[in-house]
């Protein structure tokens, strides 16, 4: 069992199934999306983090009682004004037009803003609207007010963000990738809210878009790769 929200890898004792979920991080550039992922996955923080171009992919697991939740994490770029060159077409595309490629099929998303940047909070609201309009209707969305260590430069009130989150059915926490405040906790809260029940009687099933594998049942080799190693 995970202790106090620490990410853990399955150890084979007590876990009966593994649920795999696609998680995407969205938000304005420089709000700390990559830093949150680095802190969660590797327990590290880099003061000067290079901007993500396109998207980065990492994985991490969280153990909940008899279920291991495996996150497939897509950390996206935030700059709408970043252009990506497609050599085969020799033309430029705005990053924003590519964003649906990354959140399509996601069962959960963390929308991040910087508490010291009011504009990033407004941009976060726009991302929430887009997810509510374009993503899966059952997607679990968390709102992360990052850089809580910059409380002396705060421009976004926590109560305002909390009210907005409640009105839109979002999980909400203020986080700090620098101090690790609430980083593991927000992923744990998401893991608890995601559906993890099996359907049918087979060894693997899909629930809410998640891949579920019961490790106590024989593997079905006809279905290709699973989520349990």
TrEMBL record:
Q: Does the keyword DNA repair apply?
A: no
Q: Where is the signal peptide?
A: none
Q: Which GO terms describe its molecular function?
A: G protein activity; GTP binding; GTPase activity
User: Its domain of life?
Assistant: Eukaryota
The UniProt entry's GO CC annotations, sorted and at most eight, read: early endosome; endocytic vesicle; endomembrane system; plasma membrane
What single Pfam family name could you report for this chain, choosing any that match? Ras
Subcellular location, record wording: Early endosome
Matching Gene3D superfamilies, A to Z? P-loop containing nucleotide triphosphate hydrolases
- Enzyme kind, highest EC tier: hydrolase
**Which reactions fall under this protein's catalytic activity?**
GTP + H2O = GDP + phosphate + H(+)
Q: List the keywords (alphabetical).
A: Endosome, GTP-binding, Hydrolase, Lipoprotein, Nucleotide-binding, Prenylation, Protein transport, Transport
Q: Which EC numbers does the record give? A: 3.6.5.2
A GO biological process held by the record = intracellular protein transport
Q: Which family does it belong to?
A: Belongs to the small GTPase superfamily. Rab family.
Protein's name in the database: small monomeric GTPase
Organism source for this protein? Trichoplax adhaerens (Trichoplax reptans)
